[in-house]
Amino acid sequence: MLNTSVLVLNRSFLPIHVTSVRRSFSLVYQGGARVVDTDYQTFDFEDWRGQAGKRGVECVGTTSGPVPIPRVIALTLYDRMPRRMVRFSRSNIFSRDGYTCQYCGRRPQRAELNLDHVIPRTQAGRTSWENVVCCCVQCNRTKGGRTPEQASMRLRRKPMRPRWTPLMSLPTSSIRYTEWRPYLGIHESAAR
């Protein structure tokens, strides 16, 4: 229960991170954040604790009584915007490509995924968003040090630099809490 997810907003109510319930309790208790409810009201720790009987939500039992589990918190001092530039990394490439091989379209387990340079490094291909794709091990071996055309393989889509932050790459199905939807730009009708 304490390790479930809580959406973290900056002071302007823009999503910047996902943390655990345990960490969110700590932030709210120390005054570094406030709990945000479904009516966009904010609560400090004591006020939020007082909502336990009124909320009808899951609570954590403490020695001083139940405390409702927050699903969204807003930091009180942090007002920076989320980074616009997405860091080039293996996990962000996998996320951009939906953990799907960009040649055969299979979705193997993560351990069977690899990164592939569309234009191989041996042919002056760069390591960049526009030249690296998610690829299964089998397709990577088949392609080898050749371009897709030379290997008679076709890319499912052209690789591009993503315009989202890793937080925004959460698939709609992994957003388990309706309280997150307004902040992630997901409308009820689109998510169901």
What does this structure look like?
It is a single chain. Helices cover 21% and strands 20% of the residues. The strands form 3 sheets. It has a 5-stranded mixed β-sheet. A two-stranded antiparallel sheet has the order 5-6. A two-stranded antiparallel sheet has the order 8-9. It has 192 residues and is α+β, with helices and mostly antiparallel strands. It has 2 domains: 99 residues, no CATH class; 54 residues, DNA Binding (I), subunit A. The relative contact order is 0.16. The chain has 7 helices and 9 strands; from the N terminus they run E-E-H-E-E-H-H-E-E-E-H-E-E-H-H-H.
- Strand sequence of the main sheet, in spatial order? 2-1-7-3-4
**Alpha-beta classification:** alpha+beta
Helical stretch tally: 7
Mean pLDDT: 85
| Order of SSEs | EEHEEHHEEEHEEHHH
User: What share of the residues lie within helices?
Assistant: 10-25%
Low-confidence sequence ranges? 187-192
Q: Using only CA atoms, what is the Rg?
A: 22 Å
Number of strands: 9
Work out the strand percent.
15-25%
How many domain regions? 2
- Summarize the biggest pleated sheet: 5 strands, mixed
Name the overall outline. Answer: elongated
Gap from first CA to last CA:
25 Å
How is this structure best summarized?
This protein is α+β, with helices and mostly antiparallel strands.
Task: Describe the SSE topology.
Blueprint: E1 5-9, E2 15-20, H1 21-29, E3 33-36, E4 42-43, H2 45-49, H3 52-55, E5 59-62, E6 65-68, E7 72-75, H4 90-96, E8 113-117, E9 132-136, H5 137-143, H6 181-184, H7 188-191
Parallel strand pairs: 1-7
Antiparallel strand pairs: 1-2, 3-4, 3-7, 5-6, 8-9
